[in-house]
Write a structure and sequence with these properties.
Layout: H1 4-10, H2 32-43, H3 50-56, E1 63-65, H4 71-80, E2 86-90, H5 95-104, E3 111-115, E4 127-131, H6 139-152, E5 158-162, E6 165-166, H7 174-185, E7 191-192, H8 193-201, E8 205-211, E9 219-224
Parallel strand pairs: 1-2, 1-4, 2-3, 4-5, 6-7
Antiparallel strand pairs: 5-9, 8-9
Helix pairs in contact: 2-5, 3-4
Length: about 230
């Protein structure tokens, strides 16, 4: 009979969900092969295609990507803008896999890999990109995450968030169904524009605009104001 550890080593990575932080199955966090395959699947899944073109319109500066599912977008952005540098921030267990993929794409000298927990501390950067992270968490946890970013951010730093925005009123909308799903699965929630504005403000970020995209996910832009 196979032990749980043997089954974990043989288990294939879950189907990649671009930008979605995964809560790893028991035993997976200590399995380097599993994490390598998982990171590679996420990084090659294509991310959210609108992110590179949108970020390219912002001021020059370093871009911090905190989710491997957006890694494809970070690669694309750096390829089109040789002056930019990137920071890939993730769990310590996936750093080896990230290093190999950066080398494969010729970006090892332009992307710094930093291991850590975004609830505790993140590196300084000019632009922070988060795709479908905040909806995984309740408001208290999101404030903790955003405060962690604010602690590291320079004045004027930008926050680029890709999330569903729940429309006001009673009309049907996909985000309202997802809101119930997130509540049951993770204790998180989808948010209205007003709720995002209040959430960002609680950590010192001003919501500047919400840009609609060809995908179901709009881009929320915010600026760190220190107030």
């Amino acid at each position: 009979m196979q032990s749980p550890a043997d089954r974990s080593r043989r288990r294939p990575p879950p189907r990649p969900h671009p930008g979605r932080p995964l809560r790893l199955a028991a035993g997976a966090a200590g399995n380097p092969l599993y994490l390598t395959e998982l990171f590679a699947a996420l990084a090659r899944s294509g991310g959210i295609a609108v992110a590179p073109s949108h970020i390219a319109q912002l001021a020059a500066g370093s871009v911090l990507d905190s989710v491997p599912g957006v890694f494809a977008d970070l690669s694309s952005l750096l390829a089109r803008d040789p002056a930019r540098r990137g920071i890939l921030f993730d769990r310590p267990q996936v750093v080896p896999a990230a290093s190999r993929l950066l080398a494969e794409r010729g970006l090892a000298d332009r992307v710094s890999i930093v291991a850590g927990d975004f609830f505790e501390a993140v590196p300084p950067a000019d632009i922070y990109v988060m795709s479908k992270i905040l909806h995984d968490w309740d408001d208290k946890s999101c404030r903790r995450l955003l405060t962690s970013i604010a602690t590291a951010a320079r004045p004027g730093a930008r926050l680029v968030v890709l999330e569903h925005v729940v429309p006001e009123g009673d009309q049907p909308h996909m985000s309202k169904m997802l809101d119930l799903t997130m509540l049951v699965m993770t204790g998180g929630k989808e948010r209205t524009a007003a709720e995002f504005e209040e959430l960002f403000a609680s950590a010192g970020f001003r919501l500047d605009q919400i840009v609609q995209t060809p995908t179901p996910l709009p881009v929320l832009e915010a600026t760190f104001t220190e107030t």
